[in-house]
Amino acid sequence: MNLKVQIAPNNEKGLLLQNPVMTASGTFGYGIEYREFFDIERLGAIVCKATTLAPRAGNREPRIAETACGMLNSIGLQNEGVKSLITEKAPQWTKLKIPVIVNIAGESVADYAELARLLDGVPGVAGLEVNISCPNVAEGGAAFGADCTASAAVTAAVKKTTSLPVIVKLTPNVTDIAAVAKAVEEAGADAISLINTLKAISIDINRRKPLLGNVTGGLSGPAIKPVALYMVYEVARAVKIPVIGLGGIMTGADVLEFLIVGAKAVEVGTANFVDPTATLRIVREIEDFCRGKGLQNVTDLIGTLKV
């Protein structure tokens, strides 16, 4: 049985995964923390938590609130900064047999370009995932991903300063996600991942205050899976580069849905908080399904939706 998928075929370095199951940024730390729970080298790839130029303390607490079929989070991109990642985390990744992709986040196009430059050629870093849900401070605070021109500008700047495969992670908080996807494809993206969290709020009715310290946060978990599936379906039909699906994946069956609508791989997020070994279980469930259906290649499922 062959579960291998290539998610950056147009890049000279490529990103060949032994199976289509990756971890979602912000839900799996730097990856190495999970080694005590299971063999992380059974995964397709690890996407580490968002990395910025300087260390960030994150938003004020509380940062997480449970909701029906999901959770709200407002972590605020807390991280150690890119220099610490390069000197402390990347050397540990070189010992892994699977690729590690670094999610990068900035407040300006220049930030993204500099992050890409610093990470280019760093041993242990196999690719970049560009988080364009971040606020564009230089242009008034709207998310880069909310505008086709801004999304393309970030993508082009990153591509100009790195030889690594570049995955652009799209925000669902837009009117036409397919238009943004086409803009980043034209700007040189090697792949696209979607969706990031949905803007949301939850209220404590006794205190009449938000449950999150930052008032609003991002909704993730099973509640958003139908939305994620729809957007992946739309984007997969709009672009020619690989699409990576995420949003509410809890089981192998969820992964298969994303593959059938056109995703080449997936990222598992909130499930990691419920069960630290969820990703490994999901890989096994995909294997069991393929074996039961007599499928030799998992790629035979991609884009096979019958309408």
Account of the 3D structure:
The chain has 307 residues and is of the alpha/beta class. It has a single domain, classed as TIM Barrel, CATH 3.20.20. Helices cover 29% and strands 18% of the residues. The strands form 4 sheets. Strands 3-16-15-10-9-8-7-4 form an 8-stranded parallel sheet. A 4-stranded antiparallel sheet has the order 5-6-14-11, with no helix packed on it. A two-stranded antiparallel ribbon has the order 1-2. The radius of gyration is 18 Å and the shape is globular. The mean pLDDT is 96.
Profile the largest sheet: 8 strands, parallel
Poorly predicted tracts of residues: none
What is the arithmetic mean of pLDDT?
A: 96
Named CATH topology: TIM Barrel
In terms of DSSP E residues, the strand content is 15-25%
Question: Element order, helices and strands?
Answer: EEEEEEHEHEHEHEEEEEHEHEHH
**CATH architecture tag:** Alpha-Beta Barrel
CATH class: Alpha Beta
Rg (CA only): 18 Å
Helix content: 25-40%
Total E-strand runs: 16
Taken from the alpha-carbon principal axes, the silhouette is globular
How far the N terminus sits from the C terminus, by CA atoms, comes to: 28 Å
In total, the number of domains comes to 1
Strands of the biggest beta sheet: in what spatial order? 3-16-15-10-9-8-7-4
